[in-house]
Amino acid sequence: MTKTLKHIALFILSAFVTLLVCELFINNAKIVEASLGKYYEDIGKGLPNNIETVFFNEGFGIFRTNHSRFIGNEVDTTSKNHINIALVGDSFVESFQIFERDYFGNIIEKRLEEHFKGYTFDVLNFGRAGFNISHNFAYQRLLVDQFNPALVLYFVSNGDLHLEKLSPLYPYAKEENDSLVASIEFDRKEIERYIFVQDMLAKSILLNMLKNAKHTTDKHPVPSILFGKVYDWFVPKKKSFTPDPNYKPLPMVNKILSHLDSNVIIINRDYIPFYKAFEDEVNRLGITNWDTSKFMDSLRKLGKDPYYWKVTKTNGHWNQEMHKDIGEFLSKKLIQKIEQDSVSILKSRF
Amino acid sequence: MLFNSFIFLFFLAIVLPIFYLLPKKSYKNIFLLAASYFFYGYWDWRFCLLLLLSSIVDYYIGLWIHNTEDEKKRKLLLYTSLSVNLGILGFFKYFNFFVDSFQTMINGLGGNVDSLHLNIILPVGISFYTFQTLSYTFDVYRKKLEPTNNIIDFALFVSFFPQLVAGPIERAKDLLPQLYNKLRPTKDQIKEGATLIVLGLFRKVMIGDTAGRIVDHIFGNLHLYKSIEIIAAVLLFGIQIYADFSGYSKIARGTAKLLGIELMVNFEQPYLSRNITEFWRRWHISLSSWLKDYLYITLGGNRKGQARTYLNLMITMLLGGLWHGASWNFVIWGGLHGFYLAAHKFFSKGKTEYDSITRLKDIPKVMLTFVLVAFTWLFFRATSWESTQQIFSAIFDWQVSEYAHIFTQILLSYFVLTFALDIIENRFGHTFVLRFKSISIRFGILISLFVVTLIYIFQSKPLPFIYFQF
User: Fold this and answer.
1) Catalytic residue ranges of B
2) Which domain, by its residues, includes A62?
3) What CATH number is associated with residue A158?
4) Residue A271 in contact with residue A306, Cβ under 8 Å?
5) pLDDT of A134-168, one tens digit each?
């Protein structure tokens, strides 16, 4: 009996020490990124503030979050000749795949400052993975507007117009007495569960590895991970998503559109054009909208697939070249827009 | 099939029990041969045809060389084997390199040659098994080895799956005789085999692959990165290639042990070397000893005077570089090592004996050797002259990185773990975990490492071994 207990104790002890060494190595070598989520009573699930993270996916990203809970440096909200432009959207805007310095927002900032001498600009990254147009709207109301942005750019694709399923614990647009408000009403138990999981994940990088493994199973069926090519021999690949040609905007989407501030610009961030019905509604309401689909298509024709990552040989978010290209593309658009609306945007600062 | 994939673990889980249950030597060898061809054909079944061709040619040539005393005929047979094997290797690996170089040269001189570039897929591990079969023919020709008259044994010698695609490049005199007997692993072999597989997988996946992610991103987009980041990538590549290749060799040796076969040790903590000559005795030992025995010594070795010795060293290392790949960068890499070796030979006046244990007092020499080797990795990884130029201009035109502290931390973490593991191995052997008397401690360590590695493999795409491309 004593001998068995001794064996068990030695096993546990040696396993613990080994895991501790692995934990230290994996954490310090930045092999696995710590979970990037934190629950806030005022905005729901957001990014932790003041952290620096290394991220690996189809790309390789390093970025810092500021005190205000988004990626980038602290923001000036007081200077008269300083203008903030907010980018709101999903993981394409968030851009964990690249170094912060290569972010398309930085290119826009640079070009605007070159063009509008005497002004300084901050292009703020309010992207969050999984955001749709409802989350964009609510996030703007709860967080983005605190920074007094002159323009708010909503990056949306057709997929973000299907609001049947909202990402959990993200703020969302909710109808209330004929008006539209930003809501963070969630089941308390769900919040507590999330906080508990995040606390656990903060304690160990190995637990984050387990979480990532679980996350992998959400994207790929377990047999395909285990059996690789053998699985492909027997199971045909699923067809890729094709947009619904008969799409009609949901009442909630229409409601969001009709409640948007005049400084909001809607940008199609995909290579597939917006649903016709949605585009018509946006135009009917006179909302500025820019379509990047033709621009992206032209890049593809030049052999520059915006989604292809040559190093990891995968398709994913915008690659570094696309960040550069979209940065230049949007800079031109923004310069035109700011010049057109100079009275409301630039002069109102004085 | 990659060692660092679940499918390989399933493959082993099927192959091992069947292999153990088979009663006769011949059944076991036929089964292992079939498993090896399946393993190789998993990449592309067409590669198996080349393997088969190489096996058949060398099997019969070996027998014919042995059966004739006519020196002319023996030489002719040897050249036939060399032509077939090096012809296949040359076509698949070097055709494009030479025609592209030729085209560039002619066009550079004002001529006009259209591109002769062919779209050729390089069969995985072709350089490894070609060298292995060549060693057989050489040894039979030199009358150092009796050829086998069992084609199954010979075909298994060529295609033995644990070492087929990235070595160790086994000598026929070491591996073939083991295949003549009924393979039955001992208890010690099973213990050592399992330990080597776990330690090798951990090195390959948790050190090699993870370092490789950073290296690949930086080398793939050099224009995006700052000086210190590029230097970090070069140093990390040194860690990556070592963890990747030594990890692979450990898994190969471990898997072979589970089948009752002993393969040669391919790495003996090379980064603990105190000089470059020692480095080459500890790094990719199976290739360096092959080059020494079949190239350097054939060229005359050190028997033809000092100048010729240096020349032979240089030729050996240049060809060794070219063996790695069809690129001038590999030639430069080989040339640098040749120069280092010649310089060391000159300054040490031929005294190259060393103590196998690296000690604290050796740290400055170890560091200097590492820096010299790391510099050569720059050429090895850059793969093209344009990339090499980009790296040098990034280093000389210094750009400050806002992430220098992160890269320093990452580098330190990899260095500390790699050197710590090497120091432990240097003192306590490759299966150092088995030095613990308590079986519970052994299990505690090995299971933890295995589980951590498996979780990582599960959440990320397995990266191929760097040396597969060679």
Assistant:
1) 324
2) 38-205+247-349
3) 3.40.50.1110
4) yes
5) 999 999 999 999 999 999 999 999 989 988 778 88
